[in-house]
Amino acid sequence: MLCYSHSCHLLQPLLKTHKPLTITFSSQPKPPPRKRPTFDGDQSQRPITRNRHKRSYGASRRSILKTLKQEQVTFTTPVPDDPTVGIIGGGMAGLACALYLEKRGVRSTVFDTGVHGLGGRMGTRIVDPLPLVFDHAAQFFTVSVPRFAELIQGWVEQGLVREWQGTIGELEVGGHFVPLPSSPPRYIGVNGMRPIADSLLSQTHMINVERPTWISKLEPFNGTWYLSENGKPRGQFDAIVIAHNGKCANRLLGSSGLPLIAGQMKRLELSSVWALLAAFEDPLQIPGGDTFPFEGAFVKGVDSISWMANNTKKLLGSQSGGPHCWTFLSTAAYGKRNKVPQENIPTATKEKVTTGMLMGVEEALGLPKGSLQTPFYSRLQLWGAALPTNTPGIPCIFDPHGRAGICGDWLLGSNLESAAISGMALANHIADYFQSGGDHPEEFAVGLRNGFEPIKGHDIGQFPGLEPQSQTHAAPEMQLTT
Ligand SMILES: Cc1cc2nc3c(=O)[nH]c(=O)nc-3n(C[C@H](O)[C@H](O)[C@H](O)COP(=O)(O)OP(=O)(O)OC[C@H]3O[C@@H](n4cnc5c(N)ncnc54)[C@H](O)[C@@H]3O)c2cc1C
């Protein structure tokens, strides 16, 4: 995930939206004046100035209170007949939101920073000319919620997603592998995760995509939201969706006029995970084994590694006799201990972490120290805002006074399914709100004050049906027909 946090600016003061104004904009909207705002602040939406619960997650109490002290923006203009939504973030949640808004007849524009494609943490790296292929964030997923099952069924039919038939299981330190049962089915992108995201909007006609675009400022003006990227106007919208999280989102919301939304975002805590992509000339070995027993494994008892998968087998199966492309993902504890700015990883850290992770692979496989073959290609990446570790446990957040919502995995859990369900839920909620004409906004306020709970699961997310019963709140598993 790209995060330009080092270049975020302080947001400009917001504007007053006292009453409906009718101003006709030319193609270049007039930039909002830079004076101090005076809002007709809605008392029911006054910022919370105390927090009865002891802070348990996320930003400091002082920092949350500062966020909550922002003036609340209140739109009073009527909702137009043909409203349009600006979605900031083109990961699974933002894309699902756009798709479901279209289903409800609502136009949207998805903004995403992705240079190589959409998808966010559904990342696939292809290295030419061989090519080498690696899923470098989301690895696979299970399905537990009927609405997600329907969506995935459609993607299976379109040839974007298929069942992963390869063996996966748990690898105990020393090379002891225990396969997981083949049910529930696990799903992967046919050509990797990112191509799913890049193909999703191909048959839509009410969704515009702007990429790579980094929205750096949100400003309410005359009943609409103005979005811009480093001073360059990026359009005006009747409602906005924040479909990303972490430092970027906190800065964007820092003085946006959405104190309750910003406050909820600040409570979110995220783990850090290192991804080491490595291509080997020869197949990896385990002591005493003639055939390698798995394509993917949750690693147990090794400090630096929580997951390893053979992308070549997973994505190309028997077609490939070529290089063996592996993704190794660190534990969250190792990620935290070795955290550095993800945009600028010092060489010493890169060397230390690469060595540490390759040693962890040896340890997991039970290979003698120093016996793992040297990869002929490797690439190290830090997911500084990898997975949420706490959640408000609500599908979406919506502030009807500010006409702004949040969707993302963290609202429900830590996986692609949660992200998709969240995006769909917010789309339907916004469409219902638009349909109501916006006359009774308070009826549409959702998730603005929910408390957070810790998320259980693997260091790379939740896999309903694959986890011990105690680790998931998910609905019963569901089989798809492929
Ligand atoms: C290492 C790792 C392994 C994982 N493994 C699995 C797995 O095996 N199975 C599973 O189900 N889940 C897994 N996950 C979790 C899964 O990837 C996420 O739950 C899911 O992709 C989140 O989707 P999202 O849309 O909420 O957010 P994201 O995918 O993060 O999307 C947010 C998007 O917004 C963009 N953005 C941010 N700021 C701006 C801005 N200012 N302007 C414009 N765009 C912006 C970002 O670039 C990004 O593209 C893993 C995650 C990681 C990091």
Structure description:
The protein has helices at residues 61-68, 92-103, 146-157, 193-200, 247-253, 259-267, 311-316, 332-337, 347-365, 416-435, and strands spanning 84-88, 107-111, 124-127, 132-135, 161-163, 168-172, 176-179, 187-189, 207-210, 217-221, 224-229, 232-237, 239-242, 273-280, 296-300, 307-310, 324-329, 377-383, 390-391, 397-399, 404-406, 453-454. It has 482 residues and is α+β, with helices and mostly antiparallel strands. It has two domains: 5-118 and 202-268 and 389-451, FAD/NAD(P)-binding domain, CATH 3.50.50.60; 124-195 and 271-383, Polyamine Oxidase, Chain A, domain 2, CATH 3.90.660. The strands form six sheets. A seven-stranded mixed beta sheet has the order 7-6-15-16-17-14-18. α1 runs antiparallel to α6 and α2 runs parallel beside α10. The longest helix is centred in the last third of the chain and has 20 residues, at 416-435. The two termini are 31 Å apart. Flavin-adenine dinucleotide (FAD) binds at residues 1-2, 88-94, 111-114, 120-122, 137-141, 213-215, 243-244, 248, 252, 273, 275, 329, 383, 386-387, 408-409, 414-416, 419, 460-461. This is FAD/NAD(P)-binding oxidoreductase family protein. It comes from Rubus argutus.
What's the main sheet like?
7 strands, mixed
Classified by CATH, the class of the largest domain is: Alpha Beta
Please estimate the helix content.
10-25%
Number of domains: 2
Structural class label = alpha+beta
What proportion of the residues form beta strands (DSSP E)? 15-25%
- Assign the CATH superfamily of the largest domain: FAD/NAD(P)-binding domain
